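Sample entry follows:

:::
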Amino acid sequence: MAAPAPASPAELPRMAAGKRQLMDAAVRLLARQQGAEALSLRELAREAGLNHNTFYRHFENLTALETALMDEFTQRLREGTSRARADVSAHPSVVHRVVGWLFDFAAAHREPFLVAYRTLHGPPSEGRERLNACLDELRRDMLREQREMGLLPPGPDEVWLRVLGVYGRAVYGLVVRFLEDPRQREALLAESAELLAIIVTGTRAIHPT
């Protein structure tokens, strides 16, 4: 399956042009650097093609910018994975649909994906806290929708939320491997399905209903 085209400006959240330019510039810089602490306002403004004083019209500080980036990223993940789960015409396997969508999304939006991955696995920060909170919401979306579709066996929600959290982090790693070598796509999709089966089987053994 070909990767979808990157989102056009019309598909991104509506916001002031300067704010959009700053967020896009921050993603480009962070994808080349190691963390938000490496950013400087002057460097960010130069990358965005704006006067550095423009920053404070849109953000209180760099932490607020990082939080906005993580919010936008996870919103797109929530919407995209929900559509992929529901699109039964794409593939009979829900794992194939969702993980395949993630592969395509990451390929089309490599820089924000890698920035979010570094934030998730980086030092403690408000951005990481916000990303984890948003990913918790994503897991609750997954649990609700998979319950409605009859894809998860019965059991305590708190247990399955932990399971989905473990699986989600493992899938994130698979997506990074896909970005490193897209030729692994089918093997990684098979690995993701096998991993979910192992986790579900183990969970049912530990928490029989």
Summary: Confidence is low (pLDDT under 50) at residues 1-12. Residues 62-86 form the longest helix (25 residues). The chain is about 70% helix and 0% strand. The two ends are 38 Å apart (CA to CA).
